[in-house]
Amino acid sequence: MKKILTISLLVLGILVMSGCQKESSNLDVTDREGNQVSVPRTINKIVSTAPSNTEVLIELGLSDKIVAVDKYSPKDTLNSDVTVINFREPDAEALIALNPDIIIASGHNKVGDEDPFKLLKEAGIAVVYIPSATSLQGILDDILFIGEVTNKKVEATNITKDLQDEFDEIKAIASTITNKVDVYFEIGDYSGKLYTFGSETFLNEVVTLVGGNNIYANETSWISVSSEDIIIKNPDVIISNQDYNSEIITNIKNRDGFETINAVINDKIFVVNGNKTSRGSNLIIEGIKQVAEALYPDYYDYN
């Protein structure tokens, strides 16, 4: 009861303050999920609930304004007293007490249709949602949106322009590759269940951009596949972003039947950085370069 009363008082205080300023100092935007949100024009305190969003905020020069993040976000450039919160079950009282100007949330924070930030919205705190990007253009658009709601439009435009320029350079190199390889890109091996991706994912675009042929391009989104099917498809190269597993290459080689796969026969199994190939942020370019070098070392050299 005491906790509920505390939250209510905090909410009331914020509503009073925001009510006095809202008309003249807010910007009405449509977030990346399609919600209409009124965002303060002056942003001094930011809560970021996903590593990809945090990486973009850091690149925009906003490290000092971030007051709370999820446990997976990079923290080396943030203030030492930054609050770490479980955003699947956010502590509304703790977040309201931080008095943030904006919460930049992720679709991963939701469980079903429940909005974990309902109380924060009722307190007058701006909450914008950024679902997981499904394309490289989507990543660029997310960066531009974050720049818009944090008064960093110019910086965001420059970042996205530089990224697009690098995408175009890689695409130009890929257009010169005539002997293109078939690729199996593994993103998970959990208790014998293997996971990869098809179309409508930015990782499929990554493989295509650098000149590879994803053997599961005809499938859609994130999928579970069988060892037997991978063996039949016989990829020339296998890539894994499970860099947390020091034995992943050995494990792949030792799977039943994999000794017949071209990638195993020719020792073409590579590990790339998991974070830089799975997060939809400005750092995706570093992941793209790693994939490019793994597939075509004679064409790409970023060392």
Percent of residues in helices comes to 40-55%
How many E strands?
14
The helix/strand class is alpha/beta
Largest sheet: 5 strands, parallel
Task: Name the CATH homologous superfamily of the largest domain.
Answer: Nitrogenase molybdenum iron protein domain
- Overall mean pLDDT score? 91
> Domains counted in the coordinates: how many?
2
Query: What is the chain-wise order of helices and strands?
Result: HEEEHEEHEHEHHEEEHEEHEHHEHH
Lateral strand order in the biggest sheet: 5-4-3-6-7
**N-to-C CA distance:** 59 Å
Instruction: Tell me what portion of residues adopts beta-strand conformation.
Output: 15-25%
Shape: elongated
Rg over alpha carbons: 22 Å
What would CATH call the architecture of the largest domain? 3-Layer(aba) Sandwich
Number of separate helices = 12
- CATH topology grouping of the largest domain: Rossmann fold
Low-confidence stretches: 2-7
The CATH C-level name of the largest domain is Alpha Beta
Short description:
With 303 residues, this protein is of the alpha/beta class. Helices cover 41% and strands 18% of the residues. Mean pLDDT is 91; it is low at 2-7.
